[in-house]
Each structure stands twice: as structure tokens, then as C-alpha cells.
Amino acid sequence: MDLREREPVGHTSHLWTKRQTAVNFLANLEKRNKLFLIIVGFALIGVVGVLDFLTGEEFVLLLFYLIPISLVTWLAGRRGGMVASLASTFVSLVADVAGGHTNSQLGIYIWNTLIIFSTFVIFALLLSALRRAMDHERDLAHIDFLTGAVNSRFFFDLVNMEIYRSQRYNHPFTIVYLDLDNFKTVNDKFGHITGDQVLRAVANQARTHLRKTDVVARLGGDEFALLLPETNQESAQVVISKIQGGLLVEMQQSNWPVTFSIGVLTCTDAPPSPDELIRLADELMYSVKHGSKNAIKFSNYPG
Questions:
Q1: Are residues 92 and 50 in the same domain?
Q2: Among residues 237, 235, 254, 256, which one has the least CA distance to residue 295?
Q3: What's phi and psi for 229, nearest 5 deg?
Q4: CA 149, CA 207: separation in Å to the nearest integer?
Q5: In this structure, how many other beta carbons lie within 10 angstroms of the beta carbon of residue 251?
Q6: pTM summary value
Q7: Does 222 lie in the same domain as 186?
Q8: What is the C-alpha to C-alpha distance for residues 300 and 83, in angstroms, rounded to an integer?
Q9: Relative to the CA of 14, which of 30, 50, 205, 239 has its CA 20 to 30 Å away?
Q10: Which pLDDT tens digit goes with each residue over 145-170?
């Protein structure tokens, strides 16, 4: 299959680079500075409290507490939002009392405090629910519904990030391109439901031999790819041989006439784009496919 037919290979390397730069920036900002930003959020609660005290009763600044509550909730989740809501309520109460505001009864203080706290908490809960929904939607957009493997679009994103990481830290990584031999025979002989079972079995069996940091992707049809970060060719030979052996046993036990043509490309110097990397791994696989089939071919980049 011509790689140019697959999404998102048609994108130019320049567009991929620009898009992934933005994605990497946001991801790194959240991951690397998450604790710092949470601390900033709580510090902002104190700043708003000081402003609340200085402005006195003439200005209502309760809405400004929602800014740090939003920041902490978005980064730390529902529990962080609850803590930020409690801190904001306390700071608001202290600013109110220190500013000289008085109420005729203690019950009014309690009532107002509960109303303020409830408002902050409801806001934090709604925002955390929105964040969870967005994360869930994002995860669904990355997953192949049939097999549970990541889809081709997300796989290209992950490969692009691994290229950047390899260039920065000078770590090798390995790409594996795997194609099912005789898969059409399964569909013709046993039906597409059985074909779907085969695809799910391949994804599940591959995952049993991989680390949590490794990635299984379905690129389309009966073609899969694996991303193995920080994996040299020697390590790749061991793990891919295990995967191939496990897959063949799985197929034989189910009486499915399927074998596997596999191309394995280990990168010690990352290529300029995921398109080029996948193309090279694809060519390795096809050299097996057009030869004996049911074999593994290893190579290095640069060769």
C-alpha cells in the first residue's frame, strides 16, 4: 500500500513540525511546570485576598478568586479545586473581617461563608468535570475502536515526539511495521467477525510483551506498528522475536491461517519526519512480504 494513501501521511513535514511544536510546548508546560503553576495559583489567592482587603466593602472581588481556583482545578483536578475553594473562602473571610466589615449576628458570617464556599466548590466541580470530559474525548480520538490500539494519526504524533526526544537526548528508538499474512483468507473463509477477532488478538498479544512506555498502533486494515522508545537493535531483536512467537502460537491455537511479515527499523540518528521513518519501516516489511513471508527483517537508520 502506498503510504501517501494513509492519513495523515499526506501532510508535509513542515506542517507536522509546526503543529507538533505547539503540542509539545503545551504538554511540556503542563508536565514540567505543573507544580510551579499550582503554587502560583495558591499565591494568586493570597494576592486577590490582599486586594480584597485594600478595596474594602466598596468593591466585590469574589469573581477574581475564580481565576486561581480555575488554574488549580485544571492542573490538579477535583481535589485540588476543593482545596483552592476552601483556601479562597478562608482568605475572603479574613479580608472581610480585617477590612472592618461587621455583621449583626454570627449566623450571618456563617451563612455568607457557606454561600461563598458553595459557589467556589460548584465552579470547581463543573470545571473538573469539563476537564475530564475533554480528556476522555481526546483519548477516544486517539484510539482505534476495534482493537484498542492507538490510531494512525496519534501514532504519527507520538513518533514525531520521539524523533524530537531522540535528537535531544541522543537515545535510540525502534519502529516496527507488522502486516498479517493471509488475512484476506480469514475474512473469506471465516467471515469478518472472525477477522475482527484476529485483529484484536494481535493487538492484545503484542501488548503482553511490551512495556508501558511502548506503543501499539493500528495503521489501517491488517497493518500494525509498534513504537519502542530507548530500544536498540539488540533489544528489539529479543522483544520482536517474542512477539512473533506469541502471535504465531495465538493463531495456531485458534486455527487461523495467519502469519506475520515484520520490518524493524532501529534509529540511532532520527530521520527528519515521521513520514520518512514509517516509509522506511514499511519498505522493510514489504521486502519480507514479497519474499518468504512469516519473517522479520531488521535494519538501522542511518544504514
A1: yes
A2: 237
A3: -65, 150
A4: 9
A5: 22
A6: 0.64
A7: yes
A8: 52
A9: 30
A10: 999 999 999 999 999 999 988 888 88
